[in-house]
Amino acid sequence: MYFKAAVLEKKNAVKIIKLKKPTILQKGQILIKVLYSSICHTQLQEIEIKRGKDNFLPHCLGHEGVGIVEKIFKNCKKFKIGDKVCLTWVKSGITISKGNVYQDFNDRRINSGPVHTLNEFAVIDQSRIYKLKDEKNIKNKVLLGCAMPTTFNIFLENKIKKNMNICVLGGGGLGLSFILIAKSLGCKKISLLDKNQKKLRYLKSKFNINTFKSIEEIKKDSYDLVVECTGNIHVFEMSLSLAKKFGGKIVVVGNYQKRLLSKLNPWHIIEGKTLKGAWNSEIDFKNKFSKLENLFKNLKTNFYFSNKVYKLTEINKAIKDFKKGKVIRPLIKMT
Ligand SMILES: [Zn+2]
Questions:
Q1: Rounded Cα distance, 335 and 162, in Å
Q2: 207 pLDDT exceeds 70?
């Protein structure tokens, strides 16, 4: 039996290819029938070969999705057939299976990593799979695979108080997930920087937040917390100037093109500003995932997808619309 998969053949060339469905699983491997998947900016960078030389072409894509367990490796105790699961790059425990090699219709080898979600079926390592408590709103739970875990972790690793003055730089999937969670926890003073004015107008009224379209408009030395989600190296450099002296924190979440360097003014650090990442303890997400899923139940997340659902065969349209900002996240239905 064959199934459809989005395969990166070379730079900017994603093709739908039929792959042979594996019948034998190695240790650590779980066969998943993927239901829905999404794409983030890291995936765009991968497609545009902006993450360093890609030695695995042609290969499968995607690291955020939901699906059903169809087959498990021998002696697997973590999952059972029929479990509804979230698929993610965020791992828990050790990676046993580093990836699967599929065969296409012409017996050509197609590589994959421990997680890949833009395919009707996938052999995924057990460390990248989380059992969902329920199937309610399952399509939106693709968000639990990428944007949400990273931003949720900022709340777990930092004391974020309701009265803090917070500035979010970048209103993409990461920034919006941060705002959505912050609002649900009662944070009131939130500002957002984004260059898309239409989006800013919408978010301003939706979340009752301050908005800025250029970083130069934002008052310096005035935020308790700055969350940098743009992946823009210039914005990263400027982000330090926005935090309060003596106690202000800058958390960097943005995904920067590999090998970009920046110039930072050391006086920001001398004056008591703290610069840190979103993951400051080693990732072991199992317990955190459960907390995130509980919180997710109360979040309204339909607006990420703009009520659009793409078919897998429309992958290139989904990528195009995502690049143009027509959707915050493209939702892709596998079959
Ligand atoms: Zn992602």
A1: 43
A2: yes
Domain ranges of the chain: 2-145+302-333, 149-277
Q: Does domain 2-145+302-333 have CATH number 3.90.180.10?
A: yes
Tell me what pLDDT residue 279 has.
85
Distance in Å, CA 145 to ligand 1 centroid: 7
Cα–ligand 1 centroid distance for 12 (angstroms): 17
Q: Kindly give the distance from the C-alpha atom of residue 48 to the centroid of ligand 1, in angstroms, as a whole number.
A: 15
**Distance of CA 42 from the midpoint of ligand 1 (Å):** 6
CA distance 20 to 200: 45
Q: Look-up: residue for tokens 């509980």?
A: 294
Q: 282: buried, middle or exposed (CB in 10 Å: 19+, 13-18, 0-12)?
A: exposed
Residues 6+ apart with CB under 8 A from 66: 34, 35, 36, 37, 84, 85, 86, 87, 132, 138, 139, 141, 142, 145
Q: How far apart are CA 8 and CA 142, in angstroms?
A: 21
Q: How far is the CA of 75 from the centre of ligand 1 (A)?
A: 30
pTM: 0.92
Stretch 106-129: mean pLDDT:
97
What is the Cα–Cα distance from 255 to 231, expressed in whole angstroms?
A: 5
- Tens digits of per-residue pLDDT, 91-101? 998 999 999 99
Q: What is the CATH number of domain 149-277?
A: 3.40.50.720
- Mean pLDDT of the chain, nearest integer: 95
Torsion of CA 180, 183, 185, 188, to 10 degrees: 150
Q: What is the pLDDT of residues 137-154, one digit of tens each?
A: 999 999 999 989 999 999
Q: How far is the CA of 290 from the centre of ligand 1 (A)?
A: 19
Using the mean position of ligand 1's atoms as its centre, give its distance from the Cα of residue 268 in Å. Answer: 31
What is the C-alpha radius of gyration for the chain, rounded to an integer number of angstroms?
20
